[in-house]
Amino acid sequence: MKANFRKAAKISLIFVYIVIAAGAIVRMTGSGMGCPDWPKCFGYYIPPTDISELQWSANREFKKGQVIIINESLQVANSDFKTAQAYNQKNWKPYTTHEYSIFNPVHTWIEYINRLATVLLGIPMLIMLVFSFWWYQKDKLVTVITICTIIVLGLQAVLGKLVVDTNLKPTMISVHMILALVILLMLILLVHRTDNKARSLKYHKNLLLLLSIATFLTFIQIVMGIQVRQFIDLQIDLFGERANNLWLQNPTTQFYIHRSFSIIVVLFNFFIAYRIYKFNLGYSKINWVMLLILTTVITGMAMNYLSFPFASQPTHLVLASLLLGVQFYLVLQAINSKRSHKTL
């Protein structure tokens, strides 16, 4: 059962990255309001594919909670009923949470797939929760962290509703993304902590501090990137989705800080890599850090100088999230190394 816990944690970790990628695609395509209600989509568990499914028609059966668009507003069925020959407002109530009432089938299904990925994430995490109790006698912290991870996932679901209810308020989207990163780090901690085959690497003074600083710098850089994305969203609203050459017109100071800060991140990680290679410390995952930093910088430059090529935004975010995850794993390895050194 203990081995099954780690398998479930790894599967959950993969799904977190899928959810991050799906969320980034939703934001890139402007599909966040593809489903204007939550947790259903236009009142359906499986969303509509054609506008006719959201239009009133005579002699049609509706279920309570299903939605139609009429007079550019959302109307929600009060109960299960079959329509007569004429529209009767008494059977409907206005959807008052927000005023967004546009149906775009592509946006709807992109958002639906994003929600579906989140639901699928919950399955291995619940399995992980069950298996965590087999760890309780050996390592109580595994069970505690697992329970906390499930709680944070629940908060993430609540935030998902608030994102929709506030009609994609940028601040809510940013908090939603940051919470996904927290879940990511908690799962990595669980995967590392339950690795019975983990070997202690060479200890080197200040390496743990350096790796911790590098991880924190990456986290700050991602948060700044999320805030820059808020600015881009406003530019898209101003200039339109197809005017990507104008999205970086008159950028904020935060954009320049984010761009310049990347130089610090790169140089600091290269310094750490140099020390690991020089003293032959065996932290092989530093190679992944170098590769991920390189590809993340390339996608960032592509967005800046090539006017946001297709898929560059979600790719940039996923690569940065992968970088954060690998760096955090290196921190955990360094902690083990320091503990082993103290027991000698």
Walkthrough of the structure:
With 344 residues, the protein is mainly alpha-helical. The protein contains eight helices and five strands; from the N terminus they run αβββββααααααα. A three-stranded antiparallel sheet has the order 2-3-5, with no helix packed on it. It has a two-stranded antiparallel ribbon with strand order 1-4. Strand 2 (67-70) and strand 3 (73-77) form a beta hairpin. Helix 2 packs antiparallel against helix 3 (140-165) and helix 7 packs antiparallel against helix 8 (312-343). 33% of the residues are buried.
Number of strands: 5
Strand order of the largest sheet: 2-3-5
Please give the radius of gyration in angstroms. 24 Å
User: Main beta sheet, described?
Assistant: 3 strands, antiparallel
Structural category: mainly alpha
Distance between the termini: 32 Å
Query: Averaging pLDDT over every residue, what do you get?
Result: 92
In DSSP terms (H or I, runs of 4 or more residues), the helix count works out at 8
Strand content: under 5%
Name the poorly predicted regions. Answer: none
Choose one word for the global shape. Answer: flat
- The arrangement of helices and strands along the chain is HEEEEEHHHHHHH
